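INTERNAL TRANSFER SHEET
From: sequence group
To: structure group
Subject: Oxidoreductase family, NAD-binding rossmann fold protein

Please process the attached sequence and return the structure record in the designated field. Keep the field labels unchanged so the import script can parse them.
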Amino acid sequence: MSGKPKPNPIRFGIMGCAEIARKVARAITLAPNSTLYAIGSRSIDKAKKFAAMNKLSDAVKIYGSYNQVLNDPGVDAVYIPLPTSLHVQWAVLAAKKKKHLLLEKPTALDVAELDQILEACESNGVQFMDGSMWWHHPRTAKMKELLSDSQNFGKINYIYSTSTMSPTPQFLENNIRVKPDLDALGALGDLAWYCIGASLWAKNYQLPTTIVALPDITRNSDGVILSCTASFEWNQLNGTTVATIHCSYLSHSSMDLAIYGSKGSLHVNDLIIPYQENSASFDYAAGAKFTELHLGWNKKPEELCVGTELPQEALMVQELARLVEGIRNNGCRASSKWPEISRKTQLVVDAVKKSIDLGCKPVNL
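Return from structure group:
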C-alpha cells in the first residue's frame, strides 16, 4: 500500500491493529494531503504482521508500543481504533504530546470521559475528529441541501434510522464490542452512534428534548447491549419532530435513513457504508400525492446519484489533514465543529443508556 510522494503531507501514526485500521490506513494513503508515517501495536510482531498484510511502504515506521508512536516527533496526527475503555487514557496522552486526533467511535464510555479528551485537545491546540465516515461523503452535503429547502421539503416531522448486522457466533462470543471491560456500550455505542448522529444531523444538531428507550433490549450474559430501540422528541415552537432508531447485532445488515417532511421525503439504504466507493444515491420526493381513487401516485421518488473521486474514509482523512495544515502552517485555531458534533452524539448515547438503566423511563435533555 504505497502512493506517490506528496508535498509536505500530514504524517499519521496508527495506534492499534484493529480491522478498521486497515481501512483507515488505506484512506491515509489515498488522501492527497496525508501519509502513513508509523504503525504501533502492543507487540512488534503484530505491527509487522499488519504492515505485511496491508503491503505498507518500507518507509512506514513499525513500533511495538503505543508510546513509541506518540513519542515520535515525526508524527503529526494519530488514529486511535482501540477499545472504547482505553480511549480516555490514550487520547488524552496523545493530545498532551501535541498529536492531532482521529478517534474511533464511540468516542468514550460517557460524556465525562469525552470531556476529558476534548479538554486535553483544546488546551494543547490539537484538532479532534471522530471516525464517522459518512459525514464526509458528498452525498451527505447534497441530502442536507435538499432537507434545508423548506419550500419543497417543508418541516421535518419524522426520522427513522437503523444500523444492524448479523455477525458470526465467534463475533458474539469473542469480539471486543461484546466485552464489558473493553466496549461496555455494545451495540449502543458501536451501531447507534450512526443512527443518533444521523438524527442530530437532520435536525442541524439541535439536541432532542426527550429521549426514551423502548423495552425491546437484548443483552448478552455479561450484560452488554446487543440490540435496542429508542425514540427522540424535539418539542419546538413550530411543532414536534420525532425520531426512532434501532441498532442490533441480531438482525440482517441495514443502514437505513428515512426523513419525512411536511412536503417531501428522503430515503437512503446505505448511509454508513455506500454500496459503491465512487458513487452513492438516495431517493427524494417532493409533492408526491395519491391519484384519483388512490389507484397510484402522481410521481415516483427521484433517485439522485452523487459521485466522488475519493472514498468517504479518504475524504475524512483529507478534511482532518486540511484542518491540521491550517494549524501548522497558518496558526489557525482547531475547529470546534467536529468536537461539538461528537459531544452532542455522546450526550444522546448517554441519555439512551440512562433511559435503559431506569427501566425505559423518559430522560430530558
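Handover comment: The chain has a mean pLDDT of 96. The longest helix spans residues 337-357.
Transfer complete.
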